[in-house]
UniProtKB/TrEMBL annotation:
It holds the Pfam family AIM24. Gene3D superfamilies: Mitochondrial biogenesis AIM24 (3.60.160.10). InterPro entries: AIM24, AIM24_sf, Trp_RNA-bd_attenuator-like_dom. This is AIM24 family protein. Residues 232-251 have a biased composition (Gly residues). Residues 222-251 are annotated as: Disordered.
Length: 251
């Protein structure tokens, strides 16, 4: 039998986190000294070989649970344990790997695919103003280990040497040491359908970087779906206002 498709053979790399291709993540769990547990977005598993168990992942304490419930931000996650090679994807989005070395990144919850279980994950305010002042929410990941994120298309990494503003629906993640503020360009014309459509941006300053994807989240469907809680499937979406403003605005 002959076909070009057979060129897409499984990668033989033995690292804990590996890109099978630009759309697919391969995680080795409990093999070759790799950790026996990983945390992934619910519904993101597309295949596995070996013995794997999928369990609901809680928020990790009462305070974290309350922040997730109040903000609508955070990742609907599952723990995957055992001895297996597990493949993850999210609606054929591009997958990228980031290795944290005792530092932290702030990620839009919609862009989190998987991360090593030893990392600390929490919800934090963006802009420092809280809900009353129009503050947004994001997912803070810190510690040492791998994080897999997704983007809709090939992203750009912007240096923040100069003050930088990013559409809240297109921002993916940024180095957590940056100072942030919410920039609102809302005008009366927005009420009568003549606004620019760029009502809210996130401003950044300091030494660091921001990752921006070449697409915005579809606000028309962001609040329609719940979360696919089964391990199988090509991805999931979080309902609520966590989907509005690119999954950043708290409900």
């Amino acid at each position: 039998m002959k076909s070009d498709i057979f060129a897409n053979a499984e990668t033989t790399q033995t690292d804990a986190f590996t890109l099978q291709n630009s759309k697919m993540l391969k995680v080795r769990i409990g093999l070759d000294g790799n950790p026996d547990t990983v945390v992934a977005r619910q519904g993101a598993m597309i295949a596995y070989q070996g013995q794997a168990q999928f369990d609901y992942q809680g928020a990790g304490g009462l305070s974290k649970m309350l922040k997730q419930k109040l903000s609508g931000e955070g990742v609907a996650a599952m723990t995957v344990s055992g001895q297996a090679e597990v493949f993850f994807a999210d609606q054929a989005a591009d997958v990228h790997l980031i290795y944290l070395e005792g530092d932290a990144i702030s990620i839009n919850g919609k862009n989190v695919l998987a991360y090593q279980a030893g990392l600390d994950v929490d919800v934090h305010f963006v802009g420092g103003g809280g809900i009353a002042a129009g503050g947004l929410f994001n997912t803070l990941v810190s510690g040492t280990g791998w994080v897999a994120i997704t983007t809709k298309g090939t992203p750009v990494v912007l240096s923040t040497d100069a003050p930088t503003a990013v559409d809240s629906n297109a921002v993916v993640c940024w180095s957590a040491n940056l100072q942030t503020n919410i920039i609102s360009s809302f005008k009366f014309n927005n009420l009568i359908g003549r606004g620019s459509g760029e009502a809210v941006q996130v401003g950044f300053s300091g030494q660091g970087w921001v990752i921006v994807q070449p697409a915005e989240f579809d606000l028309a469907t962001a609040n329609q779906g719940g979360t696919n809680t089964s391990p199988g499937g090509s991805g999931s979406s979080s309902g609520g206002v966590g989907g509005a403003l690119g999954g950043l605005l708290g409900r």
